[in-house]
């Protein structure tokens, strides 16, 4: 209820104060490092948003191995953030480290296919079902290229996304649905065009809105995460994906599935487990064990149309697809190591077993503290949602969310030695997490909930 929520928020705000002090007390060297000023990084950090974490300043990491982070003050954290999925299989998986070590003789980048290329292409096709693949450096890039191909082969201009989506630094997708209108996202910097001209945003799980948006037959592509993971966690209603596929096919609209986060589901992602049959697919983040590489795949029909469009072009180059370091020897070597030896059935079995344990433990702690919260899950990814029922769209997700409670949870857990994903209540489980560490996480979560509800330990 809203009464419960405002009481919790008041206590969370008080908790945040003390947790911030505790965080800083334990990090004199980190504080001193951040206090240095002068030329260097803008805002003192390599990415400006690193300052947005709930701690008074970000920890500075000395080492990351498996699920253990050690900061420059010697504090150790068990990592359930895992670089927001970039390190989903643990920090520095052994086969990937070996591939990197071999790079000394095999080179890093040549602008030519390496001897791993053929095998990697086949591995991608076998694992993810789509027959034709290309590489990029980030999931953002891969989405941009896949959208470009969708427009090129359909001749359509418009893109459809779901309200609350995030697909990376891709301007076409950085929109919000406000009072029924699609507008540029509030915090987006430096975009002077009205993004609502070519992008349509509709609520997830809304079959009527989908049918109506597709009816004009001017949408080149629907870009969707199969489970929305960037606005709390929004699960698809039973049957929603069937409708999405049926309606997109009927409208001649391509379906681009972004598996960057839902690769937590299993070895072939959510699409393979649930038989989604996308025309295009994107994956990034953990696919190369943490080095900058992403992959995007096409159906035979899309690939054939792309050949036709390419033949009609004059000359070569500047297609708007690809970057110099994409498809490099080092990407291919790490991808191969990851696909063959890291993203294995056994790794996913361990991840799912640990996630089962955490899900059960979190639900028990929530119930024991009389909280009206749910735990949503897609394989090794769990999200605590401050709502008595699972949320169905971004409006419900935003209503359930609370920055203050989320931040208090995050920082209290961090001070107990467990790093959750910031800007979420998200727990990602790596195969390197032991059962004991999973139990420790549940214990810490229960202790923090106790403090949040009763105001003491
Ligand atoms: N797709 C999804 C679903 C994401 O969550 C993200 C990043 N959070 C991206 C794409 C973009 O990934 P990157 O920042 O590595 O380009």
Automatic annotation (TrEMBL):
The keyword Ion transport is assigned to this record: no
UniProt xrefs under Gene3D superfamilies: Aspartate Aminotransferase, domain 1, Type I PLP-dependent aspartate aminotransferase-like (Major domain)
Domain of life of the organism encoding this protein: Bacteria
Gene Ontology terms for molecular function: transaminase activity
Keywords for the protein's UniProt record, in alphabetical order: Aminotransferase, Pyridoxal phosphate, Transferase
Entry cofactors: pyridoxal 5'-phosphate
Keyword presence, Transferase: yes
InterPro entries: Aminotrans_3, PyrdxlP-dep_Trfase, PyrdxlP-dep_Trfase_major, PyrdxlP-dep_Trfase_small
Family (UniProt): Belongs to the class-III pyridoxal-phosphate-dependent aminotransferase family.
Name of the protein in its database record: Aspartate aminotransferase family protein
């Amino acid at each position: 209820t809203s009464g419960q929520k405002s009481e919790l928020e008041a206590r969370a705000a008080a908790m945040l104060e003390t947790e911030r002090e505790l965080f800083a007390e334990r990090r004199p060297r980190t504080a001193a490092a951040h206090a240095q000023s002068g030329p260097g990084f803008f805002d003192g950090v390599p990415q400006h948003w690193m300052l947005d974490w709930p701690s008074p300043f970000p920890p500075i990491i000395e080492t990351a191995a498996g699920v253990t982070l050690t900061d420059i003050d010697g504090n150790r954290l068990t990592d359930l953030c895992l670089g927001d999925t970039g390190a989903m299989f643990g920090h520095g998986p052994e086969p990937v480290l070996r591939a990197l070590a071999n790079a000394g003789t095999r080179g890093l980048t040549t602008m030519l296919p390496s001897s791993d290329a053929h095998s990697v292409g086949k591995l991608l096709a076998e694992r993810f079902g789509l027959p034709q693949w290309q590489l990029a450096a980030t999931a953002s890039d891969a989405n941009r290229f896949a959208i470009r191909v969708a427009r090129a082969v359909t001749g359509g201009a418009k893109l459809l996304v779901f309200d609350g989506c995030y697909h990376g630094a891709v301007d076409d997708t950085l929109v919000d649905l406000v009072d029924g209108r699609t507008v540029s996202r509030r915090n987006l910097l430096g975009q002077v065009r009205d993004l609502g001209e070519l992008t349509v945003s509709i609520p997830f799980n809304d079959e009527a809105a989908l049918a109506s948006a597709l009816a004009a037959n001017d949408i080149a592509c629907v870009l969707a995460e199969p489970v929305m993971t960037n606005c709390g966690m929004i699960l698809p209603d039973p049957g929603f994906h069937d409708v999405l596929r049926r309606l997109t096919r009927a409208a001649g609209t391509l379906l681009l599935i972004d598996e960057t986060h839902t690769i937590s589901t299993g070895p072939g992602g959510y699409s393979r487990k649930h038989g989604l049959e996308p025309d295009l697919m994107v994956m990034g983040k953990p696919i190369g064990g943490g080095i900058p590489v992403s992959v995007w795949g096409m159906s035979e029909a899309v690939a054939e149309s792309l050949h036709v469009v390419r033949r009609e072009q004059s000359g070569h180059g500047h297609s708007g697809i690809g970057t110099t370091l994409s498809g490099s020897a080092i990407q291919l070597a790490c991808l191969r190591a990851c696909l063959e030896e890291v993203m294995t059935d056994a790794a996913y079995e361990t991840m799912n077993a640990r996630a089962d344990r955490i899900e059960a433990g979190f639900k028990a702690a929530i119930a024991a503290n009389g909280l009206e919260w749910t735990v949503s899950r897609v394989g090794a990814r769990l999200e605590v949602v401050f709502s008595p029922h699972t949320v169905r769209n971004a409006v419900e997700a935003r209503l359930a969310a609370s920055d203050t409670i989320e931040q208090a949870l995050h920082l209290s857990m961090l001070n107990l030695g467990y790093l959750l994903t910031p800007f979420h209540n998200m727990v990602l489980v790596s195969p390197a997490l032991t059962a004991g560490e999973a139990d420790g996480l549940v214990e810490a979560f229960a202790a923090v909930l106790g403090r949040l509800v009763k105001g003491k330990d």
